[in-house]
Amino acid sequence: MSVDPELLSHKLIHLLPDPVFVVDENGCIVFVSKACETLLGYTAEEMLGTPITGYVHPDDQARTLAAARRVMDGQPHIDFENRYVRKDGDAVHILWSARWYEEDRVRIAVARDVTALRRADQKRDILYQVSQAAHAADNARDLCEAVCRILDTFQDGDDLYVALYDADRKVLSYPRLTDGDVGCWVDAPLTGNSAAANVIRSGQALLATRDGQRPGLGLNRIARPGESAWLGVPVVSRDRVLGLVIIENRSPAASYSTDDLDLLQFVAMQMATALERKQAEDNLRYLAHHDPLTGLTNRTLFYDRLETALRTARRTREKVALLYLDLNGFKQINDRKGHEAGDRVLCEVAARLEACTRESDTVARMGGDEFTVLLTGLHDAGAVEAQVRKIRDAMAAPMRLGDELLTVSTSIGAAIYPDDGEDAGQLLRHADASMYVVKRASVG
After folding, report:
1. Residue 361: CB partners within 8 Å, gap ≥ 6?
2. Is residue 345 included in any domain, yes or no?
3. Domain GGDEF, which positions (predicted)?
4. pLDDT of residue 232
């Protein structure tokens, strides 16, 4: 029995898992194998006679045409990759092998779907880079900027927002990217029915397609139904929304899948973990340097700032003053009214001290009812005397404890660099001794 090789080869082509395309010199499709329908969703009858470029992703049109010209000039392609748009709107990554046949004036190409491979590569790269950024970022804004740069590299043609959420002000803050570089940060009120508002209010990941039921809505605009596709994921820590990641695309060929949403959810989870860790580190750092009752600088940080101030004063030849304060009769307050009332007095004293000093000054609680104030950048002793009077006046005002008004007086000792000492130890001893002289005088 004889076999017709030409008929057999035609049948074999339709058995190949990779689609075969034949395109004439004008770029029109003259033949496609049956595997094309699996790849792009179109039947052979739908594609025959249509321009091949009509199926190419809009963002890949220019380089695809350039590649086609090279093939027609006699340069075979065996590894050209681009994206095509399926009938359902999804994009597919295709690896091509193509050759031009001059005698027939056609180019024949075999296409391989590498979408799954590219998505796996992309996901792996994003996961690795985001994990690295989450560990390296020093603060929340640095983290947002790093994640924004990473996602921007992989999201071609999309609008991308990696934002922090201020629940008190109901404002989203996000970095604006220009050519991959972070320019300024933008504040956007969380109003209306935007994608951001939906994600923040629900605390849930959302995926929108052009089905008319859930239109794409950008961060700062109202969109018409079906105008764009978007997906958004909240950054959630302990049931509190800290921010969100939103990607939006208004291209007619764009769409997002649950795989894309899963990727963003991983990114958001990494961000939440990093922000929690940074917050825990900040809390530990704060507790190590501040008094837990009053929130004032503690003894350790005060000594550090005093040494820093003295080094600066030696260089600038300015004066530094150290005030040492003690509350008169505080033990009696604790004994008569209890430690809770005593704690309220200490907190009120701390608030008044901070209210009547400059931001450049340091107010510290040294322990018990003893406080210190570090005054820097002084040019004469008169400024110190004025500050002491200001503090005494502030403390002289009655404090309310429940239904009772209580007046608490203070004894204040002062030491000035370099008049009363050259180093921290000398100044502290002088101020402490001066304070006890004032206290004995007030008691006598």
Report:
1. 373, 374, 375, 376
2. yes
3. 318-444
4. 86
